[in-house]
């Protein structure tokens, strides 16, 4: 049994700067990954299988097994392996679902990326980075960044990746009001698609300087998402009242994050917010280091 982590991605900043002829939006986004995530386990088997469990599995209970991103990742990688003459044998895949579904922290994309990584090892298949990136992108705009899995700036529709290496971790709390959000619905509600690019990256050497830089950036999807899901305003107000250094929405929502001065401050804020909203997904976490 081989296990691959599928860490949540958080868009610390997300600027929408244009739109392609095919409708996809051009973005500039500073992305980090957290120690909170799903887990994908893979083993060779007599015939293909897919098992789903974990605390957030119910969010996918109506999901047809053929449309789950884990299964789509398996099929896309197998097709590429077979083209290279590699016997991509039958596998049983188990998804331990811990991240809320359709929540702006890339759970499905992270699962797909983890599946690609695990199956490359199980099948002893080493596609070129270009081939692997193309397979990832065919599964979703966020899958290439999840494959990278370390802090980065994403451009294009999310597939042009520039690694960045902050010298510090960030303690954060993520809050999801348990309302799923459709990514295309949020993009379609944007008032402007020609927003300013990310300002030149600030210092990656000290956290406070970085947070000052971050405060000059935005998530352009936050306003349209708030119009669709009023609870996003509640998440942001709750974070603002909890001693956060900066609070914002991730991706197309509805998950919001707050940054804190320490792991203890993040944990205390999470506990306080959980007491106020017992049904919501509220977790203290820390960003994964670039190393
Ligand atoms: C908002 C972000 O999460 C930021 O990281 C991503 O841009 C979304 O990535 P994703 O969920 O993997 O997106 P996909 O599954 O590829 O696309 C879902 C839909 O979102 C819209 N979409 C997505 C990405 C993008 N750059 N522009 C878009 O307009 C398109 O309508 C697309 O049909
Ligand atoms: N393994 C999976 N986990 C989550 N969603 C999946 C999965 N497989 C397919 N999906 C479908 O993908 C849709 C988007 O789910 P996901 O949790 O990745 O959204 P998200 O967190 O908003 O992602 P992003 O931030 O990349 O937009 C869901 O509505 C669900 O139907």
Automatic annotation (TrEMBL):
Residue sites binding ATP per the record: 100-110
Domain GHMP kinase C-terminal residue range list: 218-275
Gene3D superfamilies (alphabetical): 3.30.230.10, GHMP kinase, C-terminal domain
SUPFAM superfamilies, A to Z: GHMP Kinase, C-terminal domain, Ribosomal protein S5 domain 2-like
Keyword annotations from UniProtKB, A to Z: ATP-binding, Isoprene biosynthesis, Kinase, Nucleotide-binding, Transferase
Keyword Ribosomal protein set for record: no
Pathway this chain belongs to: Isoprenoid biosynthesis; isopentenyl diphosphate biosynthesis via DXP pathway; isopentenyl diphosphate from 1-deoxy-D-xylulose 5-phosphate: step 3/6
Domain GHMP kinase N-terminal residues, every copy: 68-150
Reaction catalyzed: 4-CDP-2-C-methyl-D-erythritol + ATP = 4-CDP-2-C-methyl-D-erythritol 2-phosphate + ADP + H(+)
E.C. numbers: 2.7.1.148
Uppermost EC category: transferase
InterPro entries reported for this sequence: GHMP_kinase_C_dom (IPR013750), GHMP_kinase_C_sf (IPR036554), GHMP_kinase_N_dom (IPR006204), IspE (IPR004424), Ribosomal_Su5_D2-typ_SF (IPR020568), Ribsml_uS5_D2-typ_fold_subgr (IPR014721)
Recorded GO MF terms: 4-(cytidine 5'-diphospho)-2-C-methyl-D-erythritol kinase activity
Entry keyword Transferase: yes
Pfam families, A to Z: GHMP_kinases_C, GHMP_kinases_N
Catalytic site positions: 9, 142
Chain's role: Catalyzes the phosphorylation of the position 2 hydroxy group of 4-diphosphocytidyl-2C-methyl-D-erythritol.
NCBIfam families, A to Z: ispE (TIGR00154), PRK14608.1 (NF011202)
Family: Belongs to the GHMP kinase family. IspE subfamily.
PANTHER family hit by this protein: 4-DIPHOSPHOCYTIDYL-2-C-METHYL-D-ERYTHRITOL KINASE, CHLOROPLASTIC
Protein name as annotated: 4-diphosphocytidyl-2-C-methyl-D-erythritol kinase
Species assigned in the record: Hoeflea ulvae
Classification lineage: Bacteria, Pseudomonadati, Pseudomonadota, Alphaproteobacteria, Hyphomicrobiales
Gene that this sequence comes from: ispE
């Amino acid at each position: 049994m081989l296990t691959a982590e599928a860490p949540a991605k958080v868009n610390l900043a997300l600027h929408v700067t244009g739109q392609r002829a095919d409708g996809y939006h051009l973005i500039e986004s500073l992305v980090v990954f957290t120690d909170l995530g799903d887990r994908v386990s893979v083993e060779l088997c007599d015939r293909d299988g897919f098992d789903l469990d974990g605390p957030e599995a119910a969010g996918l209970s109506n999901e047809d097994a053929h449309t789950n991103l884990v299964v789509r990742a398996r099929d896309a990688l197998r097709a590429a392996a077979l083209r290279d003459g590699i016997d991509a044998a039958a596998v049983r895949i188990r998804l331990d679902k811990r991240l809320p579904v359709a929540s702006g922290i890339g759970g499905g994309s992270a699962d797909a990326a983890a599946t690609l990584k695990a199956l490359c090892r199980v099948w002893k298949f080493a596609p070129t980075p270009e081939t692997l990136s193309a397979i990832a992108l065919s599964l979703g705009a966020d899958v290439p960044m999840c494959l990278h899995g370390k802090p980065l700036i994403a451009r294009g529709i999310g597939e042009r990746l520039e690694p960045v290496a902050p010298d510090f971790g960030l303690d954060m709390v993520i809050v999801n009001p348990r309302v799923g959000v459709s990514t295309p619905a949020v993009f379609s509600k944007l008032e402007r698609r020609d927003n300013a690019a990310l300002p030149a990256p600030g210092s990656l050497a000290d956290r406070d300087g970085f947070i000052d830089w971050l405060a000059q950036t935005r998530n352009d999807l936050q306003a349209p998402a708030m119009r669709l899901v009023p609870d996003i305003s509640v998440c942001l107000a709750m974070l603002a009242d909890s001693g956060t250094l900066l609070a914002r929405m991730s991706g197309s929502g509805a998950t919001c994050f707050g940054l804190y001065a320490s792991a203890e401050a993040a944990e205390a804020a999470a506990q306080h917010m959980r007491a106020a909203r017992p049904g919501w997904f509220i977790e203290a976490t820390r960003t994964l280091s670039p190393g």
